[in-house]
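Many introductory courses stop at the sequence. We go one step further.
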Amino acid sequence: MFPASRPRRLRRTPALRELTRETFLRPEAFVYPLFVRKGKGVKSEIASMPGQYHFSPDTIVTEAGAALEDGVRSVLLFGLPDAKDPQGSEAWADDGAVQQATAALKKAFPDLLVMTDVCLCEYTSHGHCGVVEKGGVVNDATLPLLAKAAVSHARAGADLVAPSDMMDGRVAAIREALDFEGLTDTAILSYAAKYASAFYGPFREAAGSTPQFGDRRAYQMDPANVEEAMREIALDIDEGADLVMVKPALAYLDVIRRAKDAFPVPIAAYNVSGEYAMLEAAAARGWLDRERAILETLTSIRRAGASIILTYHAREAARLLR
């Protein structure tokens, strides 16, 4: 006899498909990454990331306001300094671009969730994520500098600080420094499983963070490893991370799922610049349906287990979901 079970019955109409859908996207779960530099009236497009911009603190307020209207309630700020030095000292400057933008955003939109990236690569003259000695990045000497940056961001009003450097012990150092300064409510979103990926290329142009020598494989994770990711995440949670992130997203959906199944904290995933740029380039050539591809990409990340998605498509995806 012909099989009695016919799965196509539940795909026949839009109403049936929506009724039986397993995975849902919500704009409230999107985090919108933004690049900020000092100045006024700045909004300059990033060549390798069409549709993304460098903002100044005043124009970033306008952009965040538009994102709120679209339904996106969280942003992540990356800073571009006026000057760089070997230690990346503008990362913790009270008048730094991120600090100015954070204060402006919280004044304009108190309910906006402001996250700040904590790293030194945008600020150092050598482009690495920590202190360099004898041609290598020194782990322990970097930790106090990351902690200073995190405290500076929190004082400016950041709700969450997000260390992305991949130094051992950075979460504990940041948590201790925040608590010592009375900033106990500031949460930590750790880039816990950050891979040494080829998909960061456009970001490095956007943030001006290309290493001046070597690469970051001595501190970012080997793309071949997943058990190591579980260990990294466990360590960061033990050190005080409130949320953890897997980065990139699309090439590491299995890591997201493993993390979701293994740990009781919210899992974030970063749909990174190279993933964004690939989709945009293919769509510009008419090789795929752009809007469907955006939602399908984000749905796959959510389906894998991410409850928070950092995406440059945040505003557009939110509008598509209306």
